[in-house]
Amino acid sequence: MNGFIQFEFFRGALGQDPRGRWAFMLPEISPDKHIFHHQKKILSCGSMKPHDLLHPRPAGLYCPPGDFYIDPVRPVERALITHGHADHARAGHRHVLATGQTLDIMELRYGADFAESRQALAYGEKLSIDGVTVSFHPAGHVLGSAQIAVEANGLRIVASGDYKRHPDATCAPFEPVRCDVFITEATFGLPVFVHPDPLNEIHRLTASLAQFPERAHIVGAYSLGKAQRVIGLLRAAGHDAPILIHGALAKLCNYYRGQGIKLGKLAPATDDEGIVDRGAGQIIVAPPSVFGERWTRRFADPLNVFASGWMRIRQRARQRGVELPLILSDHADWNELTATIRETEAGEVWVTHGREEAIVRWCELNGIAARPLNLVGYEDEAE
Q1: Which residues contact 273 (CB under 8 A, 6 or more apart)?
Q2: Fewest CB atoms within 10 A around its CB: which of 71, 195, 286, 321?
Q3: Which of 206, 197, 144 lies closest to 170 in space, CA to CA?
Q4: CB–CB of 171/146 below 8 Å?
Q5: Which residues of the chain fall short of a pLDDT of 70?
Q6: Rg (alpha carbons) of the chain, rounded to whole number
Q7: Do 105 and 224 contact (CB within 8 A), yes or no?
Q8: Could you read off the pLDDT of 6-29 as tens digits, one per residue?
Q9: How far apart are the first and last CA of the chain?
Q10: Is the Cβ–Cβ distance between 242 and 267 less than 8 Å?
Q11: How far apart are CA 289 and CA 301, in angstroms?
């Protein structure tokens, strides 16, 4: 092999040729310099510092000993993906490791050839990549979302990805993971952001529907996660009528249903002949991008509703022409962020993509070492 030894670290890889999946190439070496066990290279160094195990690079968060990235923002050789939102899951990587549901969602969004090879890892299952142990743990963000734990030489770092703590019937609930270093998102990392009860927000929508039965209620909700959560909350609130959905939501809603998520009766909002009374007194769920477009004019006196954690900021609602803002987020609020940090018992916290300074300051005041990561390329698609 031209002076190289190839090791296979991932057993049971999917695809026609598992030998080409997640292989690691290293120069041929003598046995007295490295220890090998069951075809896995064992790290022989002493104490490891956190930045030796994970650190930022222009492409994303990189693990040098495992030679992989977490949620890279540009194509790389090996990528571990936390969830299917486009700012975290991109097409073009050579090898991708994620939960099975995240891989399915990436295929729905990008096509079957979004990566040269892929492999699924179940929640809690451990896998060794060149002596680095990785495992996925529920993040409670969207279907298939995961925190990623990275361990070597007694050091464990957990990268949260995006996460929330409010109960959500459409995905597995968040599970705190004890670690030495916790990498947390901080989308809503300011004390002003404390999310209300989701069901109370949905009751505001059903109350508006009863008050204005002559108007079509168009709910702006992102296609992955938020749309299905809104529909599920409506069902939990007792809204049993058919819900109209924009065509952009159909594939993902069908996938959720196939995964056992109950969404009730859905109907296409793109068939004018099938829309009774131009949607008066009905709920239509669509991507937020439809606000102000000609597509909405087919409906009776449309009332714009937007489900997002950013709807706490009134100016954002006004800018989008939203009449009924619903504060409904798939990210942790301030109280949940700080409580989660405590639950992990991490001695050090790295803060990324969000309001980093406030969380860093809170950690310092509570005797926890902290620093911002200043990662770029994450655009809060889920909000």
Answers
A1: none
A2: 321
A3: 144
A4: no
A5: 1-46, 271-274, 375-383
A6: 23
A7: yes
A8: 333 333 333 333 333 343 333 332
A9: 49
A10: yes
A11: 18
Assess contact for 165 and 155: CB atoms under 8 A: no
Where residue 307 sits, what CATH number does that domain have? 3.40.50.12650
Of 174, 196, 228, the closest CA to residue 382 belongs to 228
Measure the CA–CA gap between 353 and 31, rounded to whole angstroms.
43
Of 356, 370, 352, the residue nearest 161 (C-alpha): 352
Three-class DSSP category at 130: coil
Print the domain residue range for 338. 30-191+331-372
Which is nearest to 274 in space by CA: 252, 254, 247?
247
N residues, the chain: 383
Are 266 and 356 within one domain? no
**Same domain (yes/no): 101, 73:** yes
pLDDT tens digit string along 316-333?
A: 999 989 999 999 999 999
Q: Judging by beta carbons within 10 Å of its beta carbon (0-12, 13-18, 19+), is residue 116 exposed, middle or buried?
A: middle
pTM of the shown model: 0.86
With beta carbons less than 8 A apart as the criterion, state whether 245 and 284 touch.
Answer: yes
